[in-house]
């Protein structure tokens, strides 16, 4: 059409939504084209062009071909617009009414809906347009309601609701509705959970995967299927974002559960997708092979609840993040590190003391390496429970973030008996998961250590 700006066309327009496609051949794009071209020829319309939107809902006017038609109308290039019936133009009552009653007349565009007997040049043919448009919208609303009901039923039964498989999985060769671990990407998912349990945040994990040139989820799917989708950037296939990592850490599908109806559209008119509240989602457990254990999942979710930011000048993450508290005010102890410090000088101090000063609380200062030594020694003291909990922790040689999350609920650091004296006594209280605190070492012949009273009876936890 370049160089022919003043030329006017008779536009033949077709539209087919996914719901219309299920109705059969009568609504197919090819059938619409044949009908419209035959009509245009019989009525002596010249200079015709056919444009169509395949797979677009009638309540959505953000369609490529339709937007092109509007551009042509604005440029004065459309004399006539012909559709099979008014529902092909759209099923949104107000918007369709606006186009038929206001927009087309203003732009001197003749509108014809063949099967409805509508011709904007024949005034009497427009009498039933409001009722017809309302009925078309009612059809869209009813179809949307039925589709939602079917989707809800499938979600309740744990069936997949279509779309691409979650990263780490692929569709089973024998059943497209069944997920099986993907040999290439499942190990990456497992590693992401391990890295996060080790106190690496989403941004740090994304940086690690990017440096190691691990293909990101969108490009991994594209390379396997050849299917493009929104957000695909083939120029940087190994660039990971913290959002991609967070999405994986939040997805219960990796526990082997099917999570249905995680998102929905605002309405049958507004197709913007929004997250559903967790109370409205359907979780059916053990529908496919898990990539992480429940214990791994619980550790990661607990770490995520603390949402600790990795401080500057850290060579490695703080393995005590969210675990160490002041025995007096109950607030967290903050880890202090700096490029000017030696590793043996890294230390924890009370958050309240740092923010409000010595009139409210005291430093409760303890060096990081000293706290590691104390906790490691105490873990070895209760190694009997470690062996009962998990075979892989039978020998505790060093502290790891996973080990701390698995066994320890809380560490309380008291003030020194003589403030600011490095040689004075300082109490440290370790609260273990399931068993509370252990107040003495096991003696020969004992089957379990002495268990101290529950924490709530000794120290009131902060709200």
Written description of the protein model:
The chain is of the alpha/beta class and 463 residues long. 36% of the residues lie in helices and 16% in strands. It contains 16 helices and 17 strands. The protein has helices at residues 18-21, 29-42, 64-74, 86-89, 93-106, 129-156, 186-197, 202-211, 217-225, 242-249, 294-306, 351-356, 368-381, 383-389, 401-407, 455-458; strands spanning 9-16, 48-54, 78-83, 110-113, 118-119, 169-171, 179-181, 258-260, 263-265, 273-275, 282-284, 324-326, 333-336, 347-350, 366-367, 408-416, 426-432. Strands 2-1-3-4-5 form a five-stranded mixed sheet, sandwiched between helices. The chain has a three-stranded mixed sheet with strand order 12-16-17. Strands 13-14-15 form a three-stranded antiparallel sheet. A hairpin with a 7-residue loop joins strand 9 (263-265) and strand 10. The chain starts with 8 loop residues before the first strand and ends in a 5-residue tail after the last helix. Mean pLDDT is 77; it is low at 440-444 and 446-463.
Structural class: alpha/beta
Q: Helical proportion? A: 25-40%
Radius of gyration in whole Å, from Cα? 33 Å
| Main sheet properties | 5 strands, mixed
Strands of the largest sheet, in order across it? 2-1-3-4-5
Distance between the termini: 70 Å
Number of helices: 16
**Shape by Cα distribution:** elongated
Ranges where pLDDT stays below 50 over 5 or more residues in a row are 440-444, 446-463
Write the layout of secondary structure elements.
Layout: E1 9-16, H1 18-21, H2 29-42, E2 48-54, H3 64-74, E3 78-83, H4 86-89, H5 93-106, E4 110-113, E5 118-119, H6 129-156, E6 169-171, E7 179-181, H7 186-197, H8 202-211, H9 217-225, H10 242-249, E8 258-260, E9 263-265, E10 273-275, E11 282-284, H11 294-306, E12 324-326, E13 333-336, E14 347-350, H12 351-356, E15 366-367, H13 368-381, H14 383-389, H15 401-407, E16 408-416, E17 426-432, H16 455-458
Parallel strand pairs: 1-2, 1-3, 3-4, 12-16
Antiparallel strand pairs: 4-5, 6-7, 8-11, 9-10, 13-14, 14-15, 16-17
